[in-house]
From TrEMBL:
Origin species: Candidatus Parabacteroides intestinigallinarum
SUPFAM superfamilies, sorted: Carbon-nitrogen hydrolase
Keyword vocabulary terms for this entry: Hydrolase
GO biological process: putrescine biosynthetic process from arginine
GO function terms (MF aspect): N-carbamoylputrescine amidase activity
The protein, known as: Carbon-nitrogen hydrolase
Length: 292
């Protein structure tokens, strides 16, 4: 199975961003991609650096303009697409939503981001209601996709539940980067942790992981910080955590990677983690914290 990843540096020109995304999708398809994954909130800038009600104007319904635009492209090229959109569900109710488009341009399914961060420069709780669709894989013509979004990638429970429901791939559209005040040592610790935890999901669940992050610097509209330098580094890991490809930190790129889905079956035979899980002793995982 060939998977295309489009790592892009976005600007405030949303029309141009979409034009370049379409070009990236076309390039991936021309190189044989059957599935193409885009980064988180790919149509515009990462607006969550500030709390501004005017940003809600960027939200759109699903189905809506983006699913129509990219659905037509999916149908033309015969590829499955993973989009990441700012969903307007109802007045005052918004989600950070991944949408999977089938090869015929129809919506195969969607996933609403479950874990919502609220950190300096990542004020997502102001904009997004936590997802209510659960951790349900999306069935497509290229396989059963376990689509999650960004902050979800730090949670082993999310990956495990997708795997337990039969996901064949774990997919993470992402928007994450460095704040300039961090030391160089701290920046690289953060990046290394980000890669390591997701490779751990691949190992623990015997599944490939596809992560697509944005790149480039985006200014803080409030001027309170020096903005975010998104660290790119999109990557694909195999079911033993082996790195199949790693993108640069500071450049746009489209790349197609081949993944052998049959390998997951063999890895799970060698490392039968699902067989040996002590589900009779895991009830504490449903608690916020456990005290003696």
């Amino acid at each position: 199975m060939k998977i295309g990843l489009v790592q892009q540096n976005n600007t405030a020109d949303r029309a141009d961003n979409r034009t370049r995304l379409r070009a990236g999708i076309r390039k991936a398809a021309s190189e044989g991609a059957e599935l193409v994954v885009l980064q988180e909130l790919h149509n515009g800038l990462y607006f969550c650096q500030v709390e501004d009600t005017a940003c809600f104007d960027q939200a759109e319904p699903i189905p809506g303009p983006s699913t129509e635009e990219f659905g037509a492209l999916a149908r033309e090229l015969g590829v499955v697409l993973v989009l990441s959109l700012f969903e307007r569900r109802a007045p005052g109710l918004y989600h950070n939503t991944a949408v999977v488009l089938e090869k015929d341009g129809t919506i195969a399914g969607k996933y609403r981001k479950m874990h919502i961060p609220d950190d300096p420069a990542y004020y997502e709780k102001f904009y997004f209601t936590p997802g209510d669709l659960g951790f349900e894989p999306i069935d497509t013509s290229v396989g059963r996709l376990g689509v999650l979004v960004c902050w979800d990638q730090w949670y082993p429970e999310a990956a495990r539940l997708m795997a337990m429901r039969g996901a064949e791939l774990l997919i993470y559209p992402t928007a994450i980067g460095w704040e300039s005040s961090d030391t160089e040592e701290e920046k690289w610790r953060q990046l290394d942790a980000w890669v390591t935890v997701q490779r751990g999901h691949a190992v623990a669940n015997g599944l490939p992981v596809i992560t697509v992050n944005r790149t480039g610097h985006e200014a803080d509209p409030s001027g309170q910080t020096n903005g975010i330098q998104f660290w790119g580094n999109s990557f694909v890991a195999g079911p033993q955590g082996e790195l199949l490809t790693v993108f640069p930190n500071d450049a746009e790129e489209v790349r197609v990677v081949e993944v052998d889905k049959k390998r997951s079956e063999n890895v799970r035979r060698w490392w039968p983690f699902f067989r040996d899980r002590r589900i009779d002793a895991f009830e504490g995982l449903t608690k916020r914290f456990l005290n003696d």
